[in-house]
Amino acid sequence: MANEILAKLEDAIVEMKADETQALTREAMQAGVTALDILNKGLLSALERVGVLFRDGDYFLPDVLMCVKAYNNAYALLDAELKKGAYKSRGTVMLGTVHGDIHEIGKNILLALLQGNGYTVVDIGVDIKSEVFLEKAKEVKPDIIGMSALLTTSMPAMKEVVDLFVKDGSRGKYKIIVGGAPVSKKFAEEIGADGYGEDAQSGVELVGKLLAG
Prior knowledge:
By secondary structure, the protein is an alpha/beta fold. The chain contains 9 helices and 5 strands. It has helices at residues 2-14, 18-30, 35-55, 61-86, 105-116, 130-140, 156-168, 185-191, 200-212; strands at 92-97, 120-123, 144-148, 175-179, 195-197. The relative contact order is 0.12.
């Protein structure tokens, strides 16, 4: 019974049925399924499927955003239970769009996929100045810092952030990754970043690899 409900919940998220996910989540909880199991066996598995569909070109941004909405509807019911301590985060990732750029769709998709894969994510917003990345990193103490840019004119700000961490002497404390339409693996290497994600799903996989050592 419980497995059947979780399978329906997973499918509802993948099929963008946001109006069904809360009802299925409540049904699972009433059936005695723990919040952690609902997250791992319903929500997490759904977003893994969504990430692959997006990476393979079967889903596009509007589809992913609808899936994220369906996911958020379900996650909202689990949040309080997960915060009681039954759930252990896989690591903390701080995300922000660099100075001079206000685009955030890609960042927000990555945020949702990371949360769905068990990571704690701190979103510091858009148009973030280099010194704010450093200040927030010292405050949040993330394992990984992710920078996003959609404009070629804002890409130099990524290097400014990396250079600022080097100058501060704290570069070795954090893994820094970059992503966005104009960004490339070569650019990431040139500015001294630890990795580059071609898309949101690649970003999730990159985070996993970096934290695994």
